[in-house]
Design goal:
762 residues, alpha/beta, Barwin-like endoglucanases, Vcp-like ATPase, Chain A, domain 2, Rossmann fold, six-stranded mixed beta sheet, 23 helices, disordered N terminus, AAA_ATPase_domain, nucleotide-binding, AAA+ ATPase domain-containing protein, ATP-binding
Length: 762
Amino acid sequence: MDRSAQELPPVGEKAHSRGALGTWHVAGTKSGTTGTGSARHCVWLKELKKLGVSQSDVLLLRASNGKQTVAACEEWHANRQVQDRGLLLSRSCRQSLAAEDGDELELIGQFEAESATEVLLETSNVFVAAWSSLGTGFELNSYLKAVLDGSLLFKGDVRHLSLNGEMSELKISDVQGSKAVSSSAPWPGPWLVDSNTTVQVKATSKKTDGGGQGGQGGQGEAAGFARVGGLAAVIEELKEAVQLPLQNPALYRKIGVTPPRGVLLYGPPGTGKTLLAKSLAEELECPCELLAATDLVGTGFGESEERIKNVFQSCRQQASDRGTGALLFIDEVDAVCPKRDDASEVERRMVAAFLTALDGVHSGDSVVVLGATNRPEAIDPALRRAGRLEREIEVGVPNAEERLQILRVHLSALHHNLDDTQQRELARRCHGYVGADLRSLCTTAARATLRAGKDVVDLESCYDACRQVPPSALKELLVEVPEVRWDDIGGYEKTKEALKESVEWPIQHGWAFESMNMEAPRGVLLYGPPGCSKTMMAKAVATETEMNFISVKGPELFSKYVGDSEHAVREVFRKARAASPCVIFFDEVDSLGSNREESGGGVAARVLAQLLAEMDGIGSAGRHVVVLAATNRPQALDSALTRPGRFDRLVHVPLPDEAAREAIFQRQLTRMRFSFHELPVTGRSEASLLASHTAGYSGAEVVMVCREAALLAIRASIADGKGALPCATASHFNHALQVVRPRITAETVRFYEDFERSMQHS
């Protein structure tokens, strides 16, 4: 509190009238510490004894910045040494003066403090809950009385106290004394806390800044819902389900409707559920208890049940005392009410206690319970029935427009030069990002800007941050996709066109599909001989469309435990829908979708059934997810998988023709040193010559020819011993062509061609 604005008694009034004690300075010590960490306002007595100052005398101090306060003289750390006319101050005293080491300090005079009979403290309900969780057996009032004993207080003072490693604020909201200085004016302070003082604590909802959980909220001064971006629809639902019943319960009674007793917020991590609850608490003008699930979980027998009971009783009592409603928010509520079928005995008792306490909340209590979780399926069904957490509100992954609003909240705290168009483009590229991801993106961009020696965040810094910060939903499944472009894949124009139509067009030209009332293809199957760039094409699709990319090898999904394999398939599709638009690439899909008549049932049949079910529902809720799959055994796939509506497009990826082989050779030759000077001039490029001698080679075999030639050149350079750089020659390539032979037979090529014709006429 600014003491320059505090009305202090003039020097001499209730004082010893010994006048000013001169100018001093705020001292640190040789060890670098600056004084005691006490919550009391204290000044070191040792250097003042020679001036006639005694223990517990009260001094009026004024700093060079004009702020002033009072402090009691005490002796601590008597062995410390300070410079001449240096004074050690307690932490709270330094904070009141906003004083740093070396600042001038004027000692104006001495006072006698008035004894306080009653002190009322305001602190956050989080602090009160943290104290309860310690289970010390002492009342909080008694503990704070012991902490403040001997302290000098002003009304409005803020003291800081550490509990469980967290620093909390204690505000002196009111002080009462036994008498006043005069009949005309009350004693303005300081007040002395002594053995006759009683201390009372009042818990209030603590307002937090924009950082918060959930990853949203800027660093500015916005409070309440003003610091929440992209969740307008959810905020309206919250106001209807929570704010309206608490602030205007008469409206419900008027029409004979029972207001909601409980609301469940659910959604992926980082979408802003906790931030919404904290913002709601700031908006409400009523008591709010904001608790984490761990605040209710005890270690002793019956401790959890007792804590749950006390929290609900406290909410009802606060609502009754103030004549208003009360909000009880429990974060990660699934930890308090897990499914009892799989829970331990302790957890079952805790669930029963919570349900009983919730049933005890009647409409007349005006108490609303708000729970948040990212695992709604883990909550006991009894909690989600009508009459308990009956209203469920999803806080989902934001779309492009919502991402833009969230980005604007975070960018408002940064010094940047992004205009509206650039912000929209950045939001468009952040597919699948939630609020926490966008906050991390902005922080990463800011750090990159500082490393570059710049002071303005630009679009390039944000794009670099995008590459470093993946969406949370894909962190377990995301695969680093190389920068593969269509131009990197020689030939295959027909195959490329089919992939562009199936994957790129619905994203880039969605309006055209909507105008024809046409759904985008759900799946594309790439089949053909091994080594023909099927996987490379799938990666090029993800790169060109800037879609999220999940790569799954078929065997990765199988587990020896019953049900785990099907769960793994569900998780892949769930994460893809959360991060849409997204490409799921199943390599070697025949290991997942083999013919059920030949597989003999078992886990393979169950996995296939789950895959079919997920593909049928892949386009639900407006989420754009495309399944790409590759196989060199298309005949082994179950017919249900290859029908229209699942894999809508079956694309044959044949062996590369001469033009495609030339393009592959050209790309490889640009990466290596080579010289064909011993060959006669023909007017053809080196890549063209090599392509003409590799009929029947797959793309992988063409690359292997180049690697073999490079290895021969390296071997020759080392054997020469002259230290010359390796250089591949025509003879090296001729030898490589003898070593690397085509492995795909003419019968195999005819099989794929016959399969393509059969699918076209089926």
